[in-house]
Each structure stands twice: as C-alpha cells, then as structure tokens.
User: Fold these one by one.
Assistant:
Number 1:
Amino acid sequence: MSRRDFLLRAGGTAIAVPSLAAILAACTKPGTGSGVPGASASEVRDLLSNPARPDNPVTLPVFEDPIPTDMPIEEGATLQLYNWKDYLWPKLYREFEEKYADYGVKIEVTTFNDIAQGIQKVSSGQIAADVFFPDPSWIAKLSVAQLMRPLNHELLPNLATYYWPEFQNPFYDQGWQYTVPYTIYTTGIAYRRDHISDDEVRAYDNPYEILWDPKYTGKVTIYDDYRETIGMSLLKNGIANVNTEDPAEIQTAKDDLLALINATDARLTINGIYSKMPQDEFWVGGSWSGDIVAAAIYYLPKGVPASVLGYWYPQTGGGMIGNDLMVLLQSGNNPRLAHEFLNFMLDKTNSYNNFINFNGYQTPMTSIDPAALVPGVIPPSLDETVVVPKYFDDGRFLLELTPEGTAVWSAAWDEIKAGG
Amino acid sequence: MRSRPVASQTDAPERPRVNESRAPRVDRNTGVHFPRLYWPSFAAPATIWLLVLFVIPFYVVVSVAFGTTDFFQNPLPVYQPWYWSGATFIDTLHRFTASGDVGFYRPALMRTLIYVPVASFICLVLGYAVAYYVARYGGKRKGLFLILLISPFWISYLMRIYAWQGLLQDDGLINKGLIFIHAIGSPVNWLQGRSITVIMGLVYGYIPYMILPLFGQLDRVDSSLLEAGRDLGASPWQTFKRVTLPQSKQAILAGLIIVSLPMFGDYFTNDLLGSTKTSMFGNLIDTAIQGQGQAPQAASLVLMLMVLLMVPLWYYLRATKRAQEQP
C-alpha cells in the first residue's frame, strides 16, 4: 500500500466509522437485535453461548456457495494479506509473485500486533484483505458476521495431501468450511540453561511453580496476554479447564498471579521470550514454543550457543496448545487468487520453509517427522518445543468464551494490570 | 467591541438601525472599511480546530462511555443521550471507591497522585535552577544553551527511554557505577517496578517543558530591580525571595500545569521503565482500551481523569486571574 493510499484510507475510515455508526444508531437503540444481517438474534446467541469445544464440535453457518472451481484467476490483482507482525517469511511472497507472474500478481501485507486489534480492524471494516490469520476462538463470530468466504476444497488439494487428520475436520470448523491451519504451538516454560538446569525445572512437583520461585526475582517474565497467563495460572493451580468461566476459579488464578508478581517482580511482556531472554534479561518465563525457537534461530547474540535456551512442556500431556489459521475474507477482491495463495502456503515445501527459515512455528504436516526436527532444525535443548499430534488429544486449547465469561476474565486481568 | 458601532452611529446618525447592522465597520483610526464578519473570522481556524479535534471527539468519548459494545465487542457509541447507560461508568467508579479487593483501581490512583506531584516538584527545582542560570548568566550563549536544552527532543522519546533501559539494567552503567563507588553491594533491579525509576522517567521526559516557560519569564526580570533590592540592603536570598520569585510565580504555575497534566495521563513511561507494581492512571486506561469489549470502561476512565485534571487547572486559572487583577 503506498503512503498516499494509506493516508487516504486512514482518513476515509476515520470519517466513515463514526458517521456510519451514527447513521445506523439513529434508527434504533444501538446494541439491540443480532447486529448481524441474515442471522437472527437467537441464532447468534446460541452460537456465542455454546462455543466450540473438542467435545462440542461446531458446524458454522454458511450463507453462500464457495467460488466455482472453473473461475479464472484474477489478472493484475494485488492480493492483500492481513497477518501478525513477523509471522510469514517475506521470501515466500516473492516466490508466489513469480509463480503467478503470468497473471501480474502482487502481494501486499498489512500487520497487526495482537489478534484483538486484528479482529477489531476486520470487523469494523477498517481493513479490507483477501487472507486473514486468526485463531479458532474467533471463527464463530467471523462466520456469523459473514466476514469470511467459504472455501472451495477442490482448489485446496494440499490440505488433504499433507496435513494431520486432526486439521481436516477440526472441531471449531467441522468440514473445514472456512479455515485451513497455519501453525501449531504449545505454551510451556522457557528458561536460560546457563542459570537454571533442566533438572531444576523438572524437579518441581508442578514445573509451572518455577515462575513463582523468589529465587528468580527480577528474572521472570509472563505474557502480557490475558488468556495465556491466566490460563497458565489455572494449570498451576490444578484447574485443567483453561476455558473455565467459574468466577471462583478465575479468582484463584488471579490471586496467584498477583502473588507471583509480588514474589518475583515478574514483568508482563510480549517480546520477553524471543527478544529479551536471548539478551539474558530474563531467565525464566511462560513461553510459546515458537517464540523460544525463534529466539534460538535469530535473536541470540553472536557467539552465544543455542544450548543456553531450554523449554519445558508436560510430556505426559495436559499442557496448553494452540493453532493459528488462514481464512479468506469477504472484503478481499480476489477470491480465486486467494485460494491459490492458501494452497501455496499449504504446500509442504513452502510451509516447511516458513517454519524453519523464519517464524519458528511448526506446521501440522504429516511430511514433518517431529522426531527428525531435532537436532537439524531445532536445537536439542529445545526438543520439547516439537509439537506432536498426541498433544492435540488432551491438550488445553484456549477457546472462545461467552461474553459473560470474557467479562470475568477481563476484570481479573484489569486487577492484575492495575497492580496491587 | 462596543466602540465600533458607536463610531458608525456618529458617522451617520440619521441612518435607520436595520441597515446599520449590515453596514461595513469603519476603523476609527484608519478609516478602513471592514466587512461585518472580518474580525470574528480570525477566530474561525481555532474554532474549527477545537470543534473537529476536541468537541466532536469528546462527544464520541462520552458516547462510548455511556454506550455499549457490538457483536465483536467493539465499542458501539450511543449518540442519543436518552439511550445512555451509566452502568459501566458506575462499575468503573466503584473500582476506585469500593472497599477491599473490589476497589482494586485505588492503588494505581494513589500512586499517580504521589508520582505526579513529586515528579513535577523535582522538575520545578531542577528546571528553575537551570532556567535561572541560563537567564541570568547565559550572556551571549543563551541561544546556544536553549538549543542544547531542546536538543534531546531531536531523538525520539522512545529511543531515549530505551537508552535508559540499557543504563538501568542489572549490568548497566548505573549499577556498575554505583558498585564502583561502593554505594551498593550488588546490582539493584531498577526496572522491576520501582517508584523511584518511574518518577525519574517522568522527570526526564517532561523537564524541558518546565524549563522553557521559566526561562521565558526569568529572562524578562529587569536586572535593575535586583540591583535595587541589593542596594536597599537585601541579602541575595532575600532578593531572590522578594523580587525574583514573585515575578516568576506565573511561570512556575504554568510550568507545573504543563508538566503535570500530561504526566497524569502518561502510561508509556511506566510501560517501559516500570511494571504492574507501578501502574498509574494512564495504564488503567491503556489496559482497558486494549482489553476485549472494554472500550466503554476506558472511555469512563478518560472522563474521570478529565474531572481530576480540572482541579489543578481551575486553581491555575484562578491564580492567573488574581494576578491580572493585581495592579
């Protein structure tokens, strides 16, 4: 997007957003009705109050047919991607552009820093994109609001060819009507092995307790992310349901996190693991598997071996897992080309290159032998970052909460962030 | 304002009143004719600016605070006051006023009410000394000194705070220096939520705004007044107290207002140099605005902060008015 375009669009939305809302609001009291054209208030309420769970698989409503298979690829198109920052290897854009050079294709990328911001921009119409990278907890809302395009499976043969069966019919999108997988990850504990030995971490009854240990005062970081961090505190307290909406359980987790901050002066960060731990600023912290792999691949200062970084994830299962997705948005103008892009990213070579050369996040492909990733791709000290299919059997997914549940979690987080 | 119509009346006393109001104004001194809206039009840019960038956005903030959220929990401002709901506002207020755990916003408010006055006072003491020196003893180099004072602003605030992060790290220069002079035995964790670090950050970030108005005022103090004070037998301290200080009172107030108002809303200094243990009011707003579905709460906090800020502002306006009334 050129600077001029950006300014025009930014200015346009700044004016359009409040005025459009004002016009709509002028008719009826805002907030009443389903707020979604084509869906009744009760349909929306049902979907929101019964969010998808592994034991409650959801088939999302579809409001239109996928594009036909014989639809021609758009010529001279600019494919708009809306993705997390630093989450896709830029070389792949160029390869895609070269592959479709006959069609004069270009790729433009816009990024967001956290998914809530991404959703806000997509749902308010501030961003128009062909491809978007959300996580499963947002899919139901995006479908009901008719912001996504259904997928034509014939145009995406790579999914069936290369991907784990778990992702060919996921519980959050039965029949993969809208979504294909992008990355998978676990959330465990990352630590500096030059200060903390592997045995030390695993010697705790429940290794999450290491974050609470005053021995590491000043050297602890936890994610500035309410779902991940409260979720981890729930697991530390033996509450296995990381999507609980029980106020008493949330309070237990919240009080324990306040105790953690009090005991260790822990700091809430997003870059604490991938950027600050390699600098030795933090010694231990809650961590996404991909973050610590990225830390080992790109962020360690010269001369520091990757073996200084360690990662623990419960090998017996029961730890937190997650995955990100690729979806097509209605606001994009190039649905056919967007299908090509999805299939391109699902290709086993492209997907693997993105993982090992750039973002550190594994993809759920059958062609990747998890056992063979160490030591060639992943340093031996980080072997527990490898995601294996069995984690998805009993892993703790952070999934969509009901609006009431979100309010309970948010209030707990407000208290943690306000400081004692 | 009243003199101009009178002037035109004296020019043409027999003219009917209706026409007179439409008649071009005549400047009494120059005799130049001005259209009726000529002078008021000078206020138009500022009026439009205020309307577009303050009054309307402020109404949106109020509408968000008393509004609701949509399906995606994005803010859904309610523009019709008859639909406003004060529930979120009252809940948010409750987080300050309720006793026990429910009032969990109170510590952050108390910290803000301590950090900001302390930091403003330190700004004043340090800033006054610097401004005084430059104004009285800067001589020909006054301009150079001023440029040097402003020069840190050529570098982004973020970069400068990152530099502080480096200095304050466990193995940073500050700890190394303090250990070298045996002031401390082992490194201090300056960045782990320490009030002193946050206050230092606030002082560092805002002190130039204190120095500039003080310099402007002190530079205008007539040195012959100081000489007169000394001639009349006052000691240097008495001269300062009875001549210089009273003349710089307005600048002191202005400086305090200029630095403390933004400090009350500051959140990034604590974000970058503190932790949740040193959260301030601005951090409460920041957390709410980034939280899912909490925009009405964030807007409520903004309104509360505005009310809070009116107290020092009101004092400043009153003091200024009083100073003008004095002969």
Number 2:
Amino acid sequence: MLEVTGLSGGYYNHPVLDSVSFTVNKGELFGVLGPNGSGKTTLLSMLSGVLAYEAGTIKIKGKSLKEYSAKQLAQVIAVLPQHSSLAFSYTVKETVSLGRYAHQKGLFHSWSDEDEAVVQKVMEQTGVADFSDYQFEQLSGGERQRVLLAQALAQEPEILFLDEPTNHLDLSYQKGLLDLMKKMAAEYELTVIAIFHDLNLAGLYCDRLMLLEKGQVRVNDIPNEVLKQERIQQVYRTEIEKHPHPAIPRPQMFIVPNQHVSEKEACMINEQFLTVSDEMVQLHAPIPLRTMSSGVTGSGTGWHQTFVNRHVSHTYSCENHVEEMTDYLRSYGFEPSETVGMMTAVFLEAVSYRFLQGENFSIFVVVTAGVGNAVDASLADQHSDAPRPGTINTWVFINGHVAEEAFIHSIVTATEAKVKALHELGVKDPVTNTWATGTSTDSILIAATQRGERLQYAGTITPLGKLISRGVYDCTVEAIERNERVKRT
Amino acid sequence: MFKKAKWGISMKKLSSLSAVLLLSVGLMAGCGDSSKEENVSTSKGNEPTATQAFPVTIKDAAGEEVTIEKEPKKIVSLIPSNTEIVFELGAGDNVVGVSDNDNYPKEVENIEKIGGMEMNTEKVISLEPDLVLAHASNAHNGSEGIKQLKEVGIPVLVVNDSQNFEQVYKSIEMIGQATGENEAAEELVQDMQEDLKEIEEKAKAVTEQDRKKVLIEVSPAPEIYSPGKNTFMNEMLQMIGADNVAGDLEGWAKIDEESMIEANPDVIVTTYGYYTEDPVAQVKSRSGWEDVTAIKQEQIYDVHSDLVTRSGPRLVEGVEELAEAIYPNIFN
Amino acid sequence: MLKQSIRTSLTNNKPLAYIIAVSFLLFSMMVGISIGSVSVPFLTLFQILGKEVFHLPIAAQPDTMFTNIVMNIRLPRVLLAGLVGASLAIAGAAFQGLLRNPLADPYTLGVSSGASVGAVATIFLGISIPVLGNFTLPILSVVFSIITIFCVLFFAKKMDRSMKVETIILTGIIFSSFLSAFISLMIALTGEELRQIIGWLMGSVSMRGWSYIVIILPFFVIGSLTLMMNTQELNAMTFGENRAKHLGVNVQRRKLTILIAGSVLTGAAVAVSGTIGFVGLVIPHIIRQIWGPDHKHLLPLSLLIGSGFLILADLVARMVISPSELPIGVITSLIGAPAFALILLKRRRQGER
C-alpha cells in the first residue's frame, strides 16, 4: 500500500529525516514512535504531501506521491491532525461534508445523494450524528476530534494518517477511537498509520511499530520486539520497566519515577509491627510492601501495607467468602484493596513468629498452623471438594529488594520447609492415612520491602533460601505444636 | 469628466512632485535657506511724508490695535487680494514679499514668494518687512506664525475678509490707511462704486421675462460646487439682474445633477478654465444635459476665477464680464 | 426559545434567504430609480422604463427632461451603485474567507490604495491619454490596482515561498501604507484640485454615466464568476491551508486565483467610484451571522445584499440634504460603523449565553 525508500529531508536548512525506509501493507495498523524531535511529524507531513522532501521515494498503491494531483491524493489519503484551527463557525454536518470535496465533480461542486449517504454513515461511525446541527465551536475537544475524524473518513480514504490522535481525549474516547480504527482496519481494510506518544497505547493496538531516533529508523517490527526495555530506555533516555498487559498478550512500559532519599531509607519489618489478638493477627508495615500471595483479599501480586490473619469458627462456611471477608475488613477500618487478608480456624494464640538475620538482609516469618484438614497431595483425588477447617497460613516478610523470580523461589522453598515440618511431626492425612504434605486450605504470603540488598534468588541453598527454610520450618513446627496444646485445653 | 490637459502632464506639478520626492529620498541637507536679504540702508528713514498719516493705529480684523510708526517701505502681503489692492493704490514698489498664489499684476512674478496656505515665517522675517498684511480668512491658519512675527517686532495687520462689496471697500480703506495712501483708497472706492452703479442702472433694462437663470460652477464635474448666499458671485448676479440657481443655498453648495437639470439654467458660467482644459466642451458633452437651455443654446462661458472670487479691485471687472456673458445685448 | 427556533429555521432555509436577498435588491432598485431630487411622477416613470428599457409600445410621450433624468442620470447611477456594492461585498466575503479573518476587507491587501494613487495622480498631474480621453482616470486607476496586486504577491512570494496568508496580509499593509503616503503627498502639494481629490477619495457614483458601467461590467462578471467557482475551496481553507491540502484542495493555485479575482473586483470598483468603505467589511459579516459561513451561499448573498445596500446608501447620500449631495463613503461609514458595533455586541452576548 505504502512504500517509502530512502526518504530524507526537512525544513529549509534543517534536515530532519535521514534515509527512512519502510512498507505498510493494506489493512495494517502501523504505529510511529519516537522521542521529541525524532522526525515523526515531519515524516507524516511528507507522506501526506504537505511538505516537500529532498531525497527518496514515496509510493502509494505503487504510484509515486508526486504523480497524484491534490484531489486524487485526497481520495486515497486522509489526515487527522493534532490541532484544529477554525476561523468561522461551521456546523458539524458542514464540517464533515467538506470531506467530500475530493470526490465532487464539476465547476460548481454539486452535492449528490452518494455524498449525503457517506456523510451520514461516517457521522454514525464516529458517534457525532447527534451533533449534526451543532456549531463546531460548541463541542468539547474530544467531540471535535471525532468530527474531524468523520471529516477524514468522509474522504473514503484507503490510508488514514493520525497525528497523536489521543492527545486531547479522555480514557473512554481514547479507547473508542482506537477500537474504531482497529475495527475499520479489520472490516474495511483501512490502512492506518498513526504517530503515538503513548507507547502503551501503541503497543496495545498496533500490528507493527516503527521507532524513529534522530531522523532514522531504529527498529521496525511487532510491538513485543520493538518495546524492549533496554532499547526503549536507551532511545527515550529514561528508566522504564516492561510488563505484560494483565488481560491481553501485549507489552506495557512503565516509567519508574526517581525515588526521593526518604523513599530509599532502609526499613526493617519485625515483631514490633505485629499485633496478636483473639480475632486476628495483624501486621502494619510502615511502607507498602511488594507482595505475592494467595490470600482471600489482596491475592496475586501487588503492593500492600496491611496484613490480616483472621480467626473464624470451624463451622464457618460462606458462599461468598471474599465479599464477607471484605465487609469484615472494612468494618474494622481496613481498606480491603490494600490489605492481604487470610482466614483460619486456628486459635490465634498459637501463632509462631521468628526474626532471622542474614548477611545484609533479614526476614520475619509468621505462621499459624492447624492440621485438622491435612492432605497428602499425591492422593488428593481421594478427598472430596468440600473444604474443612484447618489451614496453615505462612507469612514471610523479607527486608531486602527481591527480584520477581525470587518471589516464586521463596514460595517453593517455604513450601518445601512446611512439608518437612509436617513430616517431622508425623502429621497424617486423615482420609488416606498417609503422610500429609499440607492442608487443603493453605495460604502463603511473601512480602518484601524492596529496599536494601538485592536478592535475585531464593532457592534452598541461596542465602535467602536458607533463611526462609529455617524460619518456615521452625515456625511451622512450633505453630502446630502450640495449636495441639491449645486444642487440648 | 475630470479635468484634462493636453496629452501629457502638468509639468509644473510633475516637477514639484519629483522635486519633493528627490528631496525626501536624498540627503536632507541640514542647512536651511539662509539667503539673507541685503540690508537695505534706511536712509529714507525719518523723512516726514507729505500726508502726515504716521504714526497710525488701526484696529484690524482680529481686534488688535496695530500701530505703524512710519510709512512702510517693505510690505509683505500674505494673500493675493491684499497685493492687488496695494498695487492698485500705487504702493506696489514697496512690496517685497507675496504669497505663492499671487499672479497679478505682472510685477509680482519678480517678487520673493513667502509660502502658500502656510506662510514661511523665516522667509518673511528674512525680508525685514515693516508691515505684514495678513487676512482674516487664513489668520487662524497662520496665527502661530503671526505671533512669531509680532514677537520680532514686525507690525502685522489682519485685513478683514469680505463676503460683499461693502466689506471690500472697508478692506481697501484699511490698507490705504496702513500704507499711507488714504486718498488713493478713497478714489478707488468711489470708482468702484460708480462702475457698479452703472451696471445696476443698465440692469434695470432687464425685464421679468428676459430674466435669466444662471448656474455658476466653480469646480469641474463630478465635484460641481456652486456659490450660494453670502458669496460675491451671488451678489454680482443680483446686481446684474440674473437669478442664481444656487441662490437658496448657503455658501459653496454641491448640487446634485438632477436638480441642476431640473433648474434648467439659461446660462452656465464656469470659473475653472484656468486650470482645466476646455471647460465649455466638457459641459456641453455631459450626457443627460442635452435638453438644458444653456446647452441647447450654447450659452456656456468661462470667466477667470480670480476676477470673481478675489476680494480686490478687479471684482468690478468680474461683474462686467459676467454681465457681458449673461446679457450680451444690454452690456456692450 | 421560540425566537431561537424561528431563527434556526430561517437560517437553514436557504431558498428563503435568496428570496429575501433578491427582493431586497429589487426593492432598492425600484426605490433608487423612483426617488430623486427631481420628483418624477410614478406613471411617467413606468412609461419611461417601459419604453426605453423594455421597448414596450407605449403611446405616451414623457417629457424629455424626465426621460433624460431617468435614463441618463438615475438609472446608470443606480446600476453603478449596485455593481460597485456587489463587487465590494463579494470580494470582501472572499477575502474574509481566504485570510481566515472576519475583520478583513477588500482594502486589506492594498489594492484600493493602488487604485487611489492612479486616480489621484491623474487628477493631480492632469494626465490625459488621447485614446482614452475622459476615461483616463478610471482606466489608469485599474491599471495601478493591477500593478499593486502583482507587486504585493511578488513581494509576498519573496518573503515566504509558500505565501502563507499571514505573509500576504503583511505585504498588503506595507504597500497600503506606502501608497497612502503618496496620496497624502499629492494632497499636500495640491492647489485647486483639492476638492476633486478629496471628493474622489470619499467615493461617489454621481455624474459617472453609462460608460463607467461599461468599464466595471467585464471585471465584475469575470471576478464574481471566478469567486463563485471557488466557494468549496474557501470553505476548506478556513480550516487552515494544510487541512485544505489534505482535503484535496490545490491550495497554491486556488489561493492565487481567489486573490487575483477579488483584487480585480476591488480595483475595478474603486476605479469607477472611489474608496467606499465598510461595504466589503460589514455586509459579508452580517450575512455570515444570519445565514452561516458556507461560502457557497455567503458569496452570492453578499453580492445581492451588498448591491441593494449601496443603492440605498446612494439614495440617502443624495436625498438627505437635497439638492445638495453627501459623499456616499460618508453614508456607508455612518451606517456601517454603528452597525458593526451592534453586530459585535450581539455576538458577545450570544457567546456569553
């Protein structure tokens, strides 16, 4: 559809683009990225025929750009600009109708039924049909953008150029516009070439991305390849973290703000932050901790500052235990979205906790353990689905900067230690009468201050792993023994 | 339609225009015109004149009491009518400065020019006059300049403006007093009055039926202005026994075309022939005027503007010319 | 609320707009021809018009004086006023659209100053070209105006290759000031011609005759038609030159076409009637307020209403102190300035609502 080779040029004596080459196929959503001054807008101006270029070729549908007359070009290419300046107040319909200029024939430009039909259609598509008689000036920035989009679509173009189309739009309009672009590319084979400032939006929607740096093509590939953390950090000269989108397989880039000195001070989680009562064991951290957990609330990965282990009666059974837990937390003044909440039938006076010091880091382990519902994982299918009270809730607080993989290692290491503890105490699966490996409702929390020593690994023989194994084993043993004693009294 | 000269352009205008342009484009030499008049010895200084008219104090048209110590030997006139009166009174030899617009009598061609509507104060002072004859019609224009002259000690006499003959006589008498030519002034006034009386007598021969309607045009189409009440020409027409088409309007009036045609004048008099080519032919060729009496009977005459607008002694000539043009049977 | 909906339906009803405009023009013409310092009886008027204009076989013989007045004085005067008003209004509308500025008028680009220099120089220097005779003045005036247009465009191109509209306005102002200086110079040096010069500068359609209509007519026809063929382009260009280009307009070519057509219209109008102000500024403005900025209708409606307006203004100029006349430029300014102020006030109030 669009073929660019060796394009160079700029303004007067100021060269901007240097030998830019790329191709865009029909129906593609092609994104152009780059820091300020990299030449994105210049490129767009050249491609749309507004700015002259010094060297190279631009071919649209196989024909050189220069061979198109103004009207012919407007039938193939339409542009949605960043800014719109308007001297006089036209109505929305009048504005959109101007898009038909390129298709009108004759000296006096008569208006045909076809023109009318197209205008109605594009106004529907962009959701501005209701504003048909309103004055353009009366509309908000987002509405105006949509009207101008309708105007561009009225040209019935095959290629649509967008210049930072989501700049003035709020979230819903951003999504709406890009969803529409995606739909049109899919259904009508509209080729869309858009300049983006927002890397994430570009990554979410585009089929391919081209990254410009100082007027040259840095890379031209699929989003996942282009949006590589190191490259982006280099080109944009800023700290970035890359993460996958939680819902779809697309990359997202997050900037990392510079941290103020106070935000880097060391922080030590230990028993001074722990409070134990009959109803709950709670820990309030002075700063939000990076967590990975399987609690009732706050599960998954996140940042949390409050941790609650709640005692429930062994007859507790609830259809919607998440909601119930949420209300419970709220009634105690906790913010459910910032709290990792767990529950257990164990009597909380049986809690066991230990602080362990490593070489440049430390951990704090808290365990409550009841083994009434112990399960041998290898024979789990012999159990019914109905959960029974019990539960081993393990909390590991790490005072250090823990890498993502280390979180997962920590969970594995802690679990191995827990299994060994059960084995040592001879805990048996009541159903299968074999050694138990855990209970049916175990929960684990790994929380890190993300300050201080960098801890890349947490396998069993690593420094962190050793501490976790020791701490979890000791606490789990102690917690089970205490619980047995409490039950007897 | 608009005035035209022969193929070409008014050379005088073109040269003045280019001169000004060249001056503004080129260097502006700092030195002004520093030509000084030779200090003419005033050996005639304290000679007593025969009439003993000096020193004389005159209340001028500006209300000022102007004292002239002795008979002025160096007179500067700021307006042509003053000049003509001075010459007519026989004191023309004493005139050392006249305005740019002066053109009568011939002698003024060799006299120093001191400016047009705005007088060149420096020039006037450089001539070292002992009398400056200003005029009420442009006194306010030059009041700053006049003040400057007075500050230097030059007597400035503001001669009254004239809308009718009575006032002309008054101005002649004032100038006569100022120049020490009282007798000549009296004579002149008498002559004028007599001549005019003669004309009025002859005009009595004009019967009601013979009375003619006259349209006077003082500027060419399409800006045709006609003199109405309180103008000389209006008075002149009355004297001659003719009807002024513009007689009901005040001062200089712009009459619209339709009304002029409707008025159907018998005679059309133009006064702009001295700067317009063939005014008679222009008037004749106006479309839509074919049936106007004056056109049909070719009663279109041009009278020199100076004779009928300048409030000086030649006004009588003007009346005579008008009379001849309008009633040729009665006047010569 | 009711008023608003009436207004909206009036606004949107384009055929109604044309009916109103044409009626206004016809009304003005009738009134202009019927009224004058010489009162022509209606019957006579119709007889004259019927005979001379429509060549109807009418037995009556109207008075030749009346015939002369109507056919040779009033009719050409009314027609000339109409043509000049139409030219200035449509040129004004086009310039406002092209320059994207509702405060522009046909004189912004200096064309009228050029025409004025030509005319004033003719009066001042007493120029007369043998072949042209009496028409030396308007013809020279047109020639000067055309020279001015080309100078302005040439200069603008030198300053800015893409000839952005802002550059052209600037160049126009420069030339306008420069040429006005010339006019002032000639006024300062003039003697007897002062009245003629000032009279011409204040604008007039009196004592021009049919020949002047012949001079302006071809420019009027060509200029207006050209402008009306570019209405869609004008619409597109109000969104900015880049946007217009994206919509498919050949901006460079159209811009030049509109500039030249508008300037020629203005130059011709000024050449035959002097500098009559406000028509080119206020009329398109009013039309736009009532019937919207779509140039497809704005241009022809401006033409019609501008025409009627100037005919009426001329009527007032020659009747208000009859039999004396006022310069028509004075009337248009006296009406135009307060009218403009009213429009702006109303606009502000609407905006605040």
